[in-house]
Amino acid sequence: MSYLLVPLDEAIVFPTVTANLQIDVGEDERIFLLTRRDGEFERVGVVAEVIERGRSPIGEPIATVVGLRRGLAGVATADENDPDALRMEVQEIHDGHPEDEHTVELTREYRAIVEEILELRGADGRIAAFLRSVDEPGALADTAGLSPDLTVEQKVQLLDTLNVTARLELAVEMQRERLAELQVRSRIRDDVESGAQQQQREYFLRKQMDSIRKELGDDEASVIEEYEGKIADAGMPEAVEEQAEKELRRLERQGEQSGESSMIRSYLDWLISVPWSERSEGKLDPVHTREVLDSDHAGLDDVKKRITEFVAVRKLRAERGVEKDSRADGAILTLVGPPGTGKTSIGESVAKALDREFVRISLGGLHDEAEIRGHRRTYIGALPGRIVRALRDAKTMNPVILLDEVDKVGSDWRGDPSAALLEVLDPAQNHSFRDHYLDVEIDLSEVVFLATANQLDPIPAPLLDRMEVISFDGYTTAEKQAIAVGYLLPRQVKRNGLEQDEVQVSDEILNTLISEYTREAGVRQLERELGKLLRSAATRIASESVEQPLVIDEEALRKALGQQKIFQESVERTAIPGVSTGLAVTGAGGDVLFIEATAMEGDKGLVLTGQLGDVMKESARIALSYVRSHSEKLGIDSEAFQREFHMHVPAGAIPKDGPSAGTAMTTALVSLLTGRPVKHTVGMTGEVTLQGRVLPIGGLKQKVLAAHAAGLTDVFLPYRNRADLDDVPEEVREAMNFHPVMSVEEVIDLALEPIASEADVATMS
């Protein structure tokens, strides 16, 4: 059939749909409506019937049409009656009425989906009634085109689908998408309305609470104002103040009754407690520093010298306006030495000399990384780390912080605190230290950090790399006596309720106490023994009528402290061949070790006892191999090695290890096999190779001090350690003879007594 062509720009009229068009249809009863997009006609249009003609109020022609059925566009030709109009050949398409099960199921599903959409949109019930009145599947599918939410492309796709079942499938898919979108919108709207209602309810409740608080005189607004004032007065950096203001606004929104308000208030309290703008004026005077150190501590000249240099450098840099270099300004002085040598008290003296606040942080046994960096606020009971707490306690941003026992920091599943300390102690990083709890940057570059340790070995290498080590090697007997007279004795007199003129302790008694009751690098045990002595004196003064001042004599000393505890055993112990005196360093300072060797009939071999570590076991095997390989040169019969050797280091309950016992072990074996005792005045240290070379060792000063305290006068040491003798106090160097050696042969020649008679040698072999 040929119909008048009516183009529809970006519009579609579906079959059964009535539409008003501003067109002149002339006398035609039926027309062909064809969609045009971007100047191009679509393939499928709609044959429509004109049911009414008329004109608009302004005189334009109007036609009311109703769609009848689809039509395939054919050839277009000019209209004979109107040269401006076109007529088109159209192949009309009549929808069938398929009744197969699939089409029926699609029909039911389509009706259900559309009814749910209408319910969600709150549409007029007449629309649902109209939908139920449509029986034909094709016409039912076309109702999807009436949805205002479909695009022109979707409507064209629906019109182009000529197969009724396929059209129903497409309509169902489109309406499913529409239903899903409406459901999401509905949920969002419900949530918003619910949230708005809840907020409105909370708002009214808070207003009621405000009224109650005002009646009770507890106005929440005053709390907010109080925090605002504290934040303004804290002198925070800009970024920190922004964070504080942000949290304060959260507190204001939450209200006091919120479960989170207490956490926010705790956070704000900690943030305000950090002394952001507080600084100690301090004093950079190297002369004053040395005076303070000398008045507080006897001895320790090397330590005092380095600390004085530290202050002098800072003073010059400050006076001359040298550009700040964090690595130069932030040297981390680490005081390493045995217990009781005054490391912690030196830290207090440094703070006193610099006129800064002093805070001590004990790290012994610390395993949790959060103790340094703080806990994150997501944890219940979270707190800042110890660094932030130290700043709060100091009430200044440039205190002296002593990190005590840094060598006793542990690590486990909770983290590695020593790794957290890297950021604290590294001068290149600590200007932007970030505590996990506060979560803001804190400048630690002005803090003077000091660290203490008993030993260097347990300190991780990356952490040790940030430190400058100052060794505390212990005190000589004379230094201990000076410390006792100047510091310990007056302190113990006061602690035990005595007056200075009530008790008199002579230098001879102090010397006896030091030499016969203590053998330590520090003075902690010395102070304990003095405390015992003065408690005994206080008891006599309180319970008896005694003449004052009470003079402490040797009898009173023995009565208070018991019998002598420390004995000089070197004469008796080394009088027998096979015993040598070695020097060692322990966690408590230097010490003297006796190496004992013996031989017996039995299987060839070497038995080692005394809780020796792997290194000392290797030294013993090296010593035996050296002696066997040089037996002829040493004057030892090779038959003497056809026995079992036993080497023992007494105090077997104490673990021992280290590389410096080689010379003592070799000397003990040679002494045993030659029958020549080791001189009772000799102590020795050094590592021995299979060729007999003596290699350098560490801790020479501590070993020499231990030898001096034990009454030894001759010390054999590796030749390459001779420069370390400069660290030994002058009075000790003058009282002892030192023998730097390059080979163990020199030790054997000088340390052993002259060769015994042949009968004695035979007896000992």
Q: Can you offer a commentary on this structure?
A:
The protein has 765 residues and is an alpha/beta fold. The protein has 5 domains: 2-93, LON domain-like (Archaeosine Trna-guanine Transglycosylase, Chain: A, domain 4); 220-273; 286-471, 3-Layer(aba) Sandwich (Rossmann fold); 478-561, Orthogonal Bundle (Helicase, Ruva Protein, domain 3); 570-764, Ribosomal Protein S5, domain 2. It is built from 28 helices and 25 strands. The protein has a 5-stranded mixed β-barrel. A 5-stranded parallel sheet has the order 9-10-13-8-14, with helices on both faces. It has a 4-stranded mixed sheet with strand order 17-18-20-19. A hairpin with a 6-residue loop joins strand 11 and strand 12 (441-442). Helix 17 packs across helix 18. The longest helix has 53 residues, at 164-216.
Annotated CATH topology of the largest domain: Ribosomal Protein S5, domain 2
Radius of gyration: 50 Å
Number of helices: 28
Please identify the oligomeric state.
single chain
The top level CATH class name of the largest domain: Alpha Beta
The CATH architecture of the largest domain can be given as: 2-Layer Sandwich
Arithmetic mean of pLDDT: 84
* Major sheet summary line: 5 strands, mixed, barrel
According to DSSP, the number of beta strands is 25
Strand content: 15-25%
- Class by alpha and beta content: alpha/beta
Spans of at least 5 consecutive residues with low confidence = 758-765
- How much helical structure, as a percent, in the residues? 40-55%
Calculate the terminal CA-CA distance, rounded to whole Å: 138 Å
Largest sheet strand order: 1-3-5-6-7
* Apparent shape: elongated
- What is the total domain count? 5
